[in-house]
Amino acid sequence: MPLRVSVLVPPAAAGSRSLLASLDRQTLPAAEFEVLIGDDERDPDLTARLDDLVAHRTNVARVPVPVGGDVAATLLDRASGEYVVAVPADRVFTPDALALLCDRADATGADVCLGLTGRAGSRPAGLPSDPDRLAGPAGGLRRRRATTAAQVADDLAGADATADGAAAVASTLCFVDGTPPDRPAPPEADRSVRARVVRATWTDGVLEVVAKLTEPSDDVRASVYSDRTGVEWPLTDVQVDGERVTLRIDPSSVPGVGTLPDGTWWPSLRIGGRSPVLLGGRPQKVHGASVRERTVISFSGARKRVGLDVGGHAHQPIRRLDPSVTSVVEDSRGSLLTSRLKKIDLAPGSRPTGELRLGRMPVVAWLEHDGTGPVLRAWVSGLAGESSLYTRFGHAHFAPTGTRLVVDGVGAMTVTRTVRRPAPEAETPEPSAAAPEHQPGRARRLAGRVRRSVRG
Q: Residues in domain Glycosyltransferase 2-like (predicted)?
């Protein structure tokens, strides 16, 4: 099948391990794109490393470029994809960048399709008034047959891209600028004004957060912020009533970014033009999840700051199972465990799958709506004994549910709460009353008697 896109990498970025790693993580299948890495062959070690890379990757090629030669023209002549993406140095791809840009270009017939660029390591001083124009330099996907070497040269140099001649703009994060070694640390939140979460609930895939400010303000702007990349996206669905602020976050539709990328995002407020304020709250007040096309979990971190784990990479949506609403029903097909869930917002008709682990044995589990609310279901089995239960929906590790499956001698199954037994106290041996105070001296005397008896 013809290649969809050719990724053009200049010699200045040929040694970037982070760029190559981001290409390995692309959701677009490797068979549908090629990576052409320009090499001016001035560094023999780099050339050898690239040759080894080519030997282990079928879609990567090293393209020799003469020193002082036309890098853009050389790479463009070698490209065979329907589209080309020229990558300047110190820039990496988000995991779905190539797939998103190709799909957008296919759907619109555009010769140029732009993706937004986030800057890593420093939080913006302020938010732009237009959410659709958030980024600085943009990366571009171009239709190869309509692309000139001069345009590729501009892209490789990281020049500010414009929408001239573009039939569509992909208004989502596709590229992340590299982090300079001397980057400043993100600014600390303004501690003179704070916002504490009063309530956080999921409804129809939207997280509604109600926060109370320490002082009233009419100038409140809300956003979600990634401390890993320094990218900040504004939220427009915000209501302010004195000290009370209500913001709604739809992870599938954020202004300027579209679908919120996977990772940890922190809702924050800018009050009266001051530094950003992160939302605080207690874990039991804010934990919840929306399980739809992907797992999104609201949580409270170690510093009691409210965050969003998009994709479930660090948290699990199911933290506890309640034995009082958990049953195991046996029929001709086996034993079906059903447990009613709380704080799970499940889309009607959806059936996301995950795993339920019985001790060390994982089985397939799924979530569904039984007409009254979301439930967890799984077919279980086992020998007589007890097995602790763990769940996993998303990418994070298995999470304990605080319950165990008990199978009695005749095979009947029940789910009970896990009881933590205190560790037994170590017993201190009492000293023997008959033991002499100078045991080592007596041992030496007995040893002397033995030696004398042997000699005699």
A: 19-119
Burial 112-124 (b: 16+ CB within 10 A, else e): bbbbbbbbbbebb
The residue among 140, 23, 8, 150 whose CA lies nearest residue 81 is 8
3-state secondary structure the chain: CCCCEEEEECHHHCCCHHHHHHHHCCCCCHHHEEEEEEECCCCHHHHHHHHHHHHHCCCEEEEECCCCCCHHHHHHHHCCCCEEEECCCCEEECCCHHHHHHHHHHHHCCCEEEEEEEECCCCCCCCCCCCCCCCCCCEEEEEHHHCCHHHHHHHHCCCCCCCCCCCEEEEEEEEEECCCCCCCCCCCCCCCCCEEEEEEEEECCEEEEEEEECCCCCCEEEEEECCCCCCEEEECCEEEECCEEEEEECCCCECCCECCCCEEEEEEEEECCCCCEEEECCHHHHCEEEECCCEEEEEECCCCEEEEEECCCCCCCCCCCCHHHEEEEEECCEEEEEEECCCEEECCCCCCEEEEEECCEEEEEEEEECCCCEEEEEEECCCCEEEEEEEECCCCCCEEEEEEEEECCCCCEEEEECCCCCCCCCCCCCCCCCCCCCHHHHHHHHHHHHHHHHHC
Strands 220-225, 344-346: pairing is unpaired
Range from 169-173, 196-200, 362-366 carrying the lowest mean pLDDT: 169-173
pLDDT at position 210 is 93
If we measure between CA atoms, which residue out of 181, 173, 182, 179 comes closest to residue 121? 179
- Mean predicted confidence (pLDDT) in 253-257: 75
The pLDDT, as a whole number, for residue 393 is: 93
**Could you confirm whether domain 5-177 is CATH 3.90.550.10?**
yes
Express each pLDDT in 383-400 by its tens digit.
889 999 999 998 999 999
145 or 120: which carries more pLDDT confidence?
145
Parse the chain into domains and list their residue ranges: 5-177, 195-310, 323-417
- Confidence (pLDDT) at 435: 44
CATH for 195-310?
2.60.40
CA torsion, ordered 394, 398, 399, 403, to nearest 10 deg: 120
pLDDT digits (tens, 9 = 90+) for 2-22: 799 999 999 999 999 889 989
Give the per-residue pLDDT at 183.
42
